[in-house]
Amino acid sequence: MLINIENIYIHPVKSLSDTQVQTDILRLDLIHPVISGNKWFKLKYYLEEARREDAVCLASFGGAYSNHIVALACAAKEKGFNSIGFIRGDENTPLSATLQEAAAYGMQFIFVDREAYRNKEAITQQYHQPGWYWIPEGGYGALGAEGAADILKTTDTSTYTHILCATGTGTMMSGLVMAGQPHQKIIGISVLKNHLSLENEIKTLLPDTAHAFFECVHGYHFGGYAKHPENLLAYMRELWQCDALPTDIVYTAKLCYAVKDLIAKKQFPVNSKLLLIHSGGLQGNRSLPQGSLPY
Ligand SMILES: *Cc1c(COP(=O)(O)O)cnc(C)c1O
């Protein structure tokens, strides 16, 4: 199934709007059921470079629940590359749903323990083979940010005062900061606990000519990466009921919750126009017990 960029559209989010603040959402999740949202944008220039270098196999890194890994596996298959994932953890535990899906796209895995996983450079040197093209974990790098910058070019986003996204590695956010305009502020909701190096990791990817202001918000991780307490799930059901908006437990639900809370705390000036980035990731909800969500 091909990537459908033309499926992307913006719609209002009633439950996140009031008389003073208007909130819309950019639906990147609709481009593909697996390579959804920002993952496609972050990967696309790496894939082009791999093609130019006549690579036959794409190699990258991730955890057992990595959206990046499954998106890469799917994109590789679609574009005619082999793929190999260096996975943090133990191969003796049953494969997660994410890895099963990546395997179904033909990805091979090499499992590395936590200690070894920290040193990506050593893994690359140890395993590299001719014809392999390495993509950084989470797509974090200049090409990933450049691809993410194209997110704001899919449609006219110039009238928004604030653009808000969920951040993991910060790659997508770097792209938004690069593509944003001087009157816009880019706000990232970090889904990791105590990821205080995030600002610097974003700055590292920015050229000197980056345009928009940016800010990272650290108080909405709900206990840490992929943690999803019942109050988050309850909020996801509420969003579905009010706005027919599906969100995922790792990223977009935390983004929307944060926006709701920041609006309630009057953190946005009167007449602000917010654009949320729906960055995808819905397939991650499959790790929930059946029936946890109405979608
Ligand atoms: C990976 C991912 C993110 C985070 O992107 P970064 O560029 O790593 O910050 C946000 N939302 C979804 C749905 C994702 O899958």
From TrEMBL:
List the catalytic residues.
Answer: S66 (nucleophile)
Query: Which prosthetic group or cofactor does it need?
Result: pyridoxal 5'-phosphate
- Residues forming the Tryptophan synthase beta chain-like PALP domain are 26-280
- A Pfam family matched by this chain, by name? PALP
Q: Which UniProt keywords apply?
A: Pyridoxal phosphate
Q: Which residues carry this modification: N6-(pyridoxal phosphate)lysine?
A: K39
Question: From the UniProt record, which GO molecular function terms apply?
Answer: D-cysteine desulfhydrase activity
**UniProt record similarity statement:** Belongs to the ACC deaminase/D-cysteine desulfhydrase family.
User: Protein name, please?
Assistant: 1-aminocyclopropane-1-carboxylate deaminase
Q: Which species is this record about?
A: Sediminibacterium goheungense
